[in-house]
Amino acid sequence: MRFSKRAVRTAIMTTIVLALFLAVGAGVGIVKLFPAAWTWVQNVLGGANIDAARRAVADVGAQLLDDRLVGLSRTSEGAAALAALAGNAELAQLLKWTTAIPGLGSLVQSGAYQQAIEEAVRQNVPNISEIRLDQVVSPETRTLLAEVQQVMANNPQAAEAASVVNANVLNLLKSDAFARLRQIPEFSRLLTDRVPAGGAE
Known about the structure:
elongated, single chain, mainly alpha, 10 helices
């Protein structure tokens, strides 16, 4: 059976149009499906981070015999904030310090501890206790730094590691993730009402 040139041309054009429609349809489908797929991937990874963070913080809470810390790891808001800090060794260390050093938790919550580390960096001294208050211009900042130094001086053995300038701890304190964590009332109360334990590691 012979086909006319017109029939062949029509068949070719139809095939091309169908191919274009299929390509466009597939493209639109991919564009529509990609956000859903990406959200699913993020949810899976986020869930893994939340679980890892919960475990890490719950472990620290168990080591410190602090049920409030274990409880925070179980709340949805706390777990979401902790997810961004999953596996952060400095967070665990900071929490141990706030338990071992009375008054440090309040200074962490208020930002005074962070200011003290930043001032030590500015003055190029290795330890918060070595900050020269006479080189601090602002009277308010001077008062805050004197308070941090006093807390460290009252607990010299426990505060030995906490008073050393540590870039990783400073990065944690300056991070958006830690700022979000500090806004959670349960975490704020946990920081400002710590029960002293055996000592910092």
